[in-house]
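Show me any protein, keeping tokens residue-aligned.
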Amino acid sequence: MKKLFSLLAVTCLLATTCFAQKAVVGQPYSFTHSDISYSIDKAVLPSLDVDKLYREDALNVKNGTPLRVGYVHHVGYTFSNSGRTDILSDGARLWRLSISSKDAVMLDIFFSKFNIPEGAQFHIYSGDRTQLTGTYTSKDIQENGVLAAEDIVGDEAILEYYEPANVPFHGEIEIDRVSHIYRDFLGISESKGHIGNAEGDCHPNVNCPEGNGWRNQINSVACISITGSTGSYLCSGAMINNVRMDKTPYLLSANHCLDGTNCTFKFYFQYEGATCEATDGPFNRIVNGATIIARADLNTSSDFLLLKLTGTISPRIQDSLFFAGWDATGTSSVGAAIHHPGGDIKKISIPRMVTSPGGASNKYWSVYWYNTAATSKGCTEGGSSGSPLFNASGNIIGDLSNGSSACDYLSGTDNYGKFSYSWTNNNNSNASKKLQPWLDPDNTGTKVLYGIRYTSGTGVQDRMPVQTFSIAPNPTSGSVTIKGGFDMQNGICNVYNTMGMLVATQSVDLAPSFNMSFTDLPEGLYFVEIISGNNIYKSKMIINR
């Protein structure tokens, strides 16, 4: 069993031999000029006892701690204390530094300071020049001054900075960490291609039939690479809507994914297979950087983490990006879990049952999966941590915190931090400890909100019903008769306005025909939803008096 008390965090530092994070504009100066010395300074990182690291990891896993795949070296390299600087004939400056870490599968380089003038260019490339990243320019400067560069495959990375003469100021950089990735979870050395590291094969790809009807929710989920003070880890998360619907780039995940507070984040969007049988997918849709907006106190809260992306969201990501809706009412229904197990391409798992344990555990949803491989529709594993649990309406009701499920232990259960608990975190007075101040900043009292596409301006209801039902009369003054082929005796009726906000909800006794009153609602168009068991039914209603 690969998970004990907390889901294992596995790094998602995806190799980029074939794909670049950002369009390469031009080439490094040294690639096109011969009037320079090719002798540059080399920074050789201390050798690692990888066998010892694996032994440590095995012990840590037994204690329920995250699975480490990268070891972090703290370095502090700058222009002034490392590398070679050449003054060119026209007064320009050229700085280069080779960083090597023996036997690394990949190197990941993190800048605590990145401030360069307009016209300057920064590149990073592999020692054999087969992989080139960049061009990083002044446009890549972030508010917090941090830069997470693209991963370099292999054990040597060369950094090159070109600064024209007569710039308004000299550039400044500081490389504070280099992560030596020692687990070959992508199968690079065996030339198996860029596949993930899910331990089981029971997780359906998002483009399998199980993903039908969940496309918007799928487009909200990202793989998150988190590098902290000691190592590199993987989690999952989802972009999330707010009541202003202003497309603030918030992402919901789990607090236990963090390795301290001084973490660097990368987000891999649209990393999924094109077919149900696919074993790989594109991983070049990357957003670099985030700040921590709100997080749980793990001893008293429900293990949530709200991030705000700070890097540029490229048009290619924007075209399909979805900010998921949410439900803070504390009610549940069976929907779907979408995640990146073990850094693998995006998967979807369909729960068998979602319940609330009550008592001291009322901060979590208990999720049960299918019990045999023959009936399995997935579960979760390391790397799934922080991934969203959607209800039947397609709205987030929780994020994955811990559990015991696995493809070889389908009777295990998982705990998802309740969105409804995280909403106010038991009425916590600290805004950084709850979700409500950020997702409902104007304190409108909204408890249910549909998602929104990046390219859209209004809420989206995209979970299509299994069946529809009729409302008569329609238009109505408020009193209606509902008729439908409901297969259960009770359900929940939700009414949403055209902005996707919940304006009425109540439990209903279902029959082939029954009456309801909406006389308290003002005139307008509404979407009426009835959730019954695993099914969802929808219809439209116009109130006109």
The chain has six helices and 37 strands. The first helix runs from residue 29 to 32. The radius of gyration is 25 Å. The first strand starts at residue 42 and ends at 44.
